[in-house]
Amino acid sequence: MSVNSESNDTMEMQKLVDDLEQGHRNGGQATKSECFFQSLLLSIDTPFQRVMLSIDERCNMKTLMRMWGTRLDFIVRLMLVATFLDDSFRMATHFTEHTANVEQESMQWLLQKSPTLVSATAVIALGIGLSAQFVGSFCLLSLQHLDLATKALIGWVIAQPVLYAQLFNLDFIIESLSVLGGLLILRSHLVFDQSSDSAHIQLLGRLLIPPMALYHAFVYLSTVITPEESSNAFDFVSSLSMVVLYIMAFLVLVFFSVLVAVGLKSRLIALLLALINLGIVFYNHPFFRYDNMPIPHQLQGEDIDWDQIYDYHRYYFFLGISTSGALLLLTQFGPGEIAVQKNEVLVVQRGKD
Question: How far, in Å, CA of 173 to CA of 118, rounded?
Fold first, then answer.
């Protein structure tokens, strides 16, 4: 392909995105999902663009985007609500156990004085939570009653750590903040559209996502920061080199998180973090391998059975899927109006600057 031909194709793709985004601003319904795949492609650097242009020579990319845009949009929403769907199913099938857990964990101080009141409060609270998760998830997937659906899910994300006494469980809180950020980003676009409230809500949602990467990077770094002692100089240098490598990886994640927070290259970084997080989730929480699951350090030393380990990995697996969904929503919609780089699609024109 010649340079002029490649430049013309790039300009044509840019024009398509501008047309789609203009249609979205004018109230078009299909343009949100159509813009997702196209803006995703154009937010990635030149090598990937060249691959997509090469594919475009063999098939009509515009047609593919129209065919798959809505499906991709649905898949991202499904990933975001995955933890709510799984948790609502677990609550429905083990409602008595969840009620007892809430009574013992968060209402133990009142249990001896008024057990009837505690039991009734736990049943009502979990019943509301079950309904909020299931109905809210279904409404988001079907794009119905979006205002109430997002409010219900956001309310449950805030109430859940209180009911289950998980306020000091940093793993749970950090992951929940990322899911909350994804819900706010989705709400800013599906409920408020292009209003001033949308920009502020999307900013808040964007700021809630980076702490997840920083926290997990810090936890992992703290476990490998000390080089292993060895009488062999080669082994010691090799161990020390790995420590340096981990520190560099941590600094890269810090840099990425800062870029997401300020809204610079946030689409590309969110996509990379979503893919990395998916790999980590499948590696750390393989609940589908029932007979070969690692024992999490949070449960070590306790009198637990294999079902507890399974439930732990299953919950955090779907919570991680929802976290990746939140990152993909940031990839889909971009950083918003309050950002250093409002429209990352302009990255295609860097060769002309």
Answer: 25
The DSSP output letter for 346 is: G
Give the N- to C-terminal CA distance of the chain in Å, as an integer: 22
* Cβ atoms of residues 53 and 1 within 8 Å: yes
Going from the C-alpha of 140 to that of each of 73, 150, 195, 283, the distances in angstroms are: 11, 8, 20, 29
The answer to whether residues 334 and 342 touch, using CB atoms and an 8 Å cutoff, is yes
Contacts 24+ apart (CB under 8 A), 97-100: 98/126, 99/123, 99/126
Nearest Cα residue to 210 out of 184, 181, 238, 239: 181
Q: Quick one: average pLDDT of 97-117? A: 79
Task: Please answer whether residues 212 and 177 qualify as being in contact, where contact means their C-beta atoms are separated by less than 8 angstroms.
Answer: yes
Query: Contact, 328 vs 271, CB < 8 A?
Result: yes
pTM of the complete model: 0.74
Note the Cα 265 to chain centre separation in Å. 17
pLDDT digits (tens, 9 = 90+) for 226-250: 555 555 555 555 666 677 777 888 8
At 268, which amino acid appears? L
Neighbours of 103 (CB within 10 A): 18
Q: Is residue 337 within 8 Å of residue 195, measured between CB atoms?
A: no
**pLDDT tens digits for range 17-67:** 455 444 444 444 444 444 554 454 444 454 555 555 565 555 554 555 566
148: which residues sit within 8 A by CB, 6+ positions away?
A: 136, 139
**Residue whose structure tokens are 């505690």:** 118
What DSSP string describes 269-321?
A: HHHHHHHHHHHHHHHH--TT-TTS----TTTTTS---HHHHHHHHHHHHHHHH
What sign for the dihedral angle of Cα 99, 102, 103, 107?
A: negative
Cα distance between residue 75 and residue 83, in whole Å: 14
